[in-house]
Amino acid sequence: MTSPLMEVGEARPSLLGSSLNDLLRHWLPRQRWYAGSGRPIAEVSTASATVLTAECLHLLVRVKESVDRDETYYQLILGAAVDPPPRLWPHVLGQVDGPDGRSLVVYDAVHDHRIAALLLDRIRMGGAHGTLRFESLPRTSIPEGLTPRVLDVEQTNTSIVYGDRLILKLFRRIQQGVNPDLEVPIRLARWGYPWVPAPQAWFFATEPFLGTLGTVQPFLTGATDGWTLALNSASTQGDFIEQASSLGRTTGELHAALAQAFPTTQPAGRHLPCLAAEMAHRLKRTVETVPALRTHASAIQQIFANAAAAPSELCLQRIHGDFHLGQVLWADGSWHVVDFEGEPSQPLPERRSDRSPMRDVVGMLRSFDYAAHMGGTPRPQWAERCRAAFCAGYSSAGGFEPAGVPALLRAYEADRAVYEVLYEATHRPDWITVPLKAVARLAAAR
Question: Residue 18: which region, alpha, beta or left (left: phi > 0; alpha: psi -120 to 50)?
Fold first, then answer.
């Protein structure tokens, strides 16, 4: 049977062309993982294409939103069929003309169980295929015949679970270089750190550049994410102190392991004044967008100035980079840390750079504050108890005591809250009161 994607002797898949680009121009901005925040797309083009099966095509597409914006690359796995089954219709992009004159329905093939299973089979085989290369850790065996299902959660990537034994994370926005969600867990596994699931296999693009496309890791059966646990506890006024303390200890152990697995950096002499200036600049830009911050701007700037005059900065090292309750899983009485990708909107070199471990600490402290305000009636006392327990647990295993460097702690938390104000104003206006209250609290504290 002739492939709907290829004609005999054709070097370029027939599906590619202006009609597909038009579909992508309208479909991409509606996806949760698209980084353009609903902005219209000016241009879409194919950067690389590999036929995975007769009905399935792997693409890296190049997107430009306007002439003054940089190019962005996205990974797509598209299927094409004359009449796809009804369960795939929610994931349809539209129709294009096939090579034989028939209309083909194009859909997001990660939701096609048959193609998802074939993708794991291809990863298991290893080696090169078109513009893709598949690799795995030595002596790794990926089981066959596992039933796939796509996780229905809001995230900047797409995750497919296979038989509740493995999880394949497909990175949607692709940047040149090794993704830290592959680099960091592999390095920690080699150092024997037990609380980060180790990648078993992965694959990457070789054109138009070398970039990580996906990783396969063990799936923690029965695990519950920290956000769900904390939200339930805050909503019912439950006791989360023991879990918060354990999470702090796990975080301290993580930072200690990262400091061993990767080189660390001593901050330069002007590091803190430069850092404070960067924070003040972010505050100024945010005030221009969210005038409600103006009342507290002077006090927050003083917090940054106090940090600039602090005796010293902490040693800089590899960190998680996007640390919050949604990035930790509770399973078998222990916390496990996942998703080391960092902020996907940041350039990859920045996400892989050495930074202060205080960024991870305040990320989790802010997450407790969010959980305390999301369950209906705000529970600020619940958040404060969890924050104190987390810091105490961290002090027992990390390289410093967060409360022992109060000027840095307040500056990093204020900077994080300012970032949250801008994020919520742009993406979730109904949530903006949570970081605004945090800014007011920090500004009023003495």
Answer: alpha
Nearest-angstrom CA–CA distance, 382 and 229: 13
Mean pLDDT of the chain: 92
What's the pTM?
A: 0.91
* C-beta of residue 405 within 8 angstroms of C-beta of residue 310: yes
pLDDT at residue 22 greater than cutoff 50: yes
Say how many C-beta atoms besides its own lie within 10 A of residue 310's C-beta.
Answer: 14
Q: Could you tell me if 129 and 152 are in contact, meaning their C-beta atoms sit under 8 angstroms apart?
A: no
CA dist 45 and 62 (Å) reads 5
* 429 in the same domain as 349: yes
Q: DSSP states of 237-274 as a string?
A: T---HHHHHHHHHHHHHHHHHHHHHS--BPPPTTHHHH
What tokens were used for 197? 């699931």
Query: Which range marks the domain in which residue 252 is found?
Result: 224-444
- Residue 76 in any domain: the answer is yes
Looking at the structure, tell me whether residues 125 and 52 fall in a common domain: no
CA distance 394 to 358: 11
For the chain, how many structural domains are there in total? 3
